[in-house]
Design goal:
Blueprint: H1 3-23, H2 30-54, H3 58-64, H4 67-95, H5 102-134, H6 137-156, H7 163-195, H8 200-228, H9 234-258, H10 264-275, H11 280-296, H12 301-310, E1 317-319, E2 332-335, H13 341-349, E3 355-359, H14 368-377, H15 384-404, E4 408-410, H16 415-430, E5 435-437, H17 460-469, E6 474-481, E7 486-489, E8 493-494, H18 501-522
Parallel strand pairs: 1-7, 2-5, 2-6, 3-4, 3-5
Antiparallel strand pairs: 6-7, 6-8
Helix pairs in contact: 1-2, 1-4, 1-5, 2-8, 4-7, 4-8, 4-9, 5-7, 6-7, 6-9, 10-11, 14-15, 16-17
């Protein structure tokens, strides 16, 4: 939501004030003059809505065909409705009080509106914009909505001794939401220009149409509330409604925000597309991948929400993340497994997005139960009757989590399937995705936090990617320490396509192994195995 949209809120409310006081002398009670003014404003808004709808053109239909734009459009619509409902409820609570004079009312409302505007703008420029740029935009947006709702509930139940404290938190939440939404809007605009060729002027018309539509719906809701509760004391009713009603729309806005498929991974693809000058084949592949992702899919909201709750329990500081700035293309991360701890930390704490290698049995509804059973049986403290039934009970949930990470299935035992894994990995990299894999052979150090010997076949990724693109990828060693609560990222090792395959395979595998073993030793892990070369 732009500042232009934000400034329309007090302007619309000011128009309501003028109309209400202009007609106040014509009716015996404020209910009628405020109600009639709202009806007139709603009719005018409807006319504006119809006119703007006719000027949207075919571009709007093309944009609405993409899941990404639909989620964004719904998110911003409900966000704007929350703002409009808050301001209209507040103004109604004042205008319906017939004992207050016109000048006193104008002064009181103007003072409150200006105070909120100044506070929100200060939040935006002091830290809101920086927070939205540094952290995940959706997370900042949801955090802002949560602060607004919690502060409103606390004010409703009179938790704060000083009402101004509650309004400060409300303004903080609004400022964070505004900061995140501005950047989300820029991201969607960039994606739509790439995927469906929507220019900036058309996108601005879409947002203007959304402004008018949100205001129209808010007006309808306010009129409906006035009619439904006309028998009550409306001043007190709208004083309470300004704290509660916007929360309904904020919840809906957050739902659509977490369903947004344009995540950090896809934003990185846009950057790769824009910087891949002259490489038309790869650019087209990236564009097609983005189009498929943003047109047909929704993000799995359950995974994002689960991450919010799980992340605080898995603290891990990333050491060496500065090495991942300006990667210049997709890379391969090679990490230690440490049973299930390594993959969990990688998913929750890795500073860049990636697609993981996951054993194919864990992606099959028919095979996942058998694949999980040895691990469950190895948990000594679980009673036997729970061990027997647990894989069957949780398999669908685990399958949902696995597939949400957009994994690359790893096949073993059949050469043709192994080649398929390598080809799928190279294709994913061509589409702009980083890849992470855990190549250790499970042995003693695997479960103790050390580094065991590798299955070294993963190095074939370098050769396959070079064949498809003519580019050399880079392998980054990653060591995850449970003891130190740290994730170490080592220096990248560039694949050399001119070297003989067996020698290059050995060189990269050994270099990655030595780097990870060294990081493990520095973290106080058990001594590593003797070498990195495996099958």
């Amino acid at each position: 939501m732009s500042f232009r949209t934000f400034l329309r809120i007090p302007l619309a409310a000011l128009l309501l004030i003028i109309c209400a006081f202009f007609t106040r002398g014509l009716f015996p009670v404020p209910f009628w003059d405020v109600g009639i003014c709202l009806v007139v404003m709603t009719a005018a808004t409807l006319v504006s809505l119809i006119v703007r709808r006719r000027h949207l053109g075919e571009e709007y239909i093309s944009a609405k065909a993409t899941s990404s734009f639909r989620m964004y459009d719904a998110m911003q619509l409900f966000t704007k409705m929350a703002f409009y409902m808050a301001i209209l409820c507040f103004f109604n609570s004042v205008l319906l009080d017939g004992n207050v004079g016109a000048l006193d009312t104008v002064f009181y409302l103007s003072l409150n509106v200006m105070s909120v505007l100044v506070a929100v703008i200060l939040v935006y420029f002091l830290f809101g914009k920086k927070a939205a740029e540094r952290f995940d935009r959706t997370n900042v947006f949801v955090l802002g909505a949560a602060i607004w709702m919690i502060a409103s509930i606390c004010m409703f139940y009179k938790v704060f001794d000083i009402t101004a404290v509650g309004y400060i938190f409300v303004c903080l939440g609004i400022g964070l939401m505004l900061s995140a939404l501005r950047l989300i809007t820029d991201d969607i605009k960039e994606a739509m220009s790439l995927v469906v060729n929507i220019d900036g002027d058309s996108f601005a018309r879409f947002n203007a149409y959304s402004d008018v539509k949100a205001f129209f719906y808010a007006e309808i809701d306010i009129i409906a509330l006035m009619l439904l509760f006309s028998g009550r004391e409306l001043v007190g009713f709208f004083s309470d409604a300004v704290l509660i009603v916007p929360g309904v729309f904020l919840i809906l806005a957050c739902v659509f925000a977490v369903l947004q498929p344009l995540d950090k991974r896809n934003l990185d693809k846009i950057v790769i597309y824009r910087t891949a000058e002259g490489e038309e084949k790869q650019k087209q592949i990236i564009k097609n991948s983005l189009a498929a992702r943003l047109t047909e899919e929704k993000d799995k909201a359950g995974i994002r929400i689960m991450t919010w709750f799980v992340r605080p329990f898995f603290r891990s500081k990333c050491v060496g993340k500065e090495k991942l700035k300006n990667l210049g293309g997709p890379v391969v991360f090679v990490a230690n497994h440490y049973e299930i701890y390594g993959p969990i930390i990688a998913v929750l704490r890795m500073p860049v997005r990636f697609r993981p290698w996951i054993i194919s049995n864990m992606l099959s509804s028919e095979q996942i139960e058998a694949q999980m059973r040895p691990g469950v049986d190895g948990v000594r403290w679980l009673p036997g009757f729970i061990k027997r039934g647990l894989p069957r009970v949780i398999k669908n949930f685990i399958l949902y989590i696995m597939k949400a990470m957009k994994p690359i299935p790893v096949y073993r035992g059949n050469l043709r399937e192994v080649i398929a894994t390598i080809d799928m990995t190279a294709q994913a990299m061509m589409e702009g995705d980083n890849v992470m894999l855990f190549p250790e052979k499970p042995a003693e150090k695997y479960s103790q936090g050390g580094v065991d010997r590798f299955h070294s076949g993963f190095v074939e990724i370098g050769s396959a990617y070079y064949k498809k693109t003519g580019k050399s990828t880079t392998f980054y060693p990653v060591y995850i320490s449970k003891k130190k609560r740290k994730m170490y990222i080592g220096d990248g090792i560039k694949f050399d396509p001119t070297a003989p395959k067996p020698e290059e395979k050995r060189r990269i595998s050994d270099a990655l192994y030595r780097a990870m073993a060294s990081m493990a030793a520095d973290a106080g892990a058990p001594d590593a195995a003797d070498g990195g070369e495996g099958d």
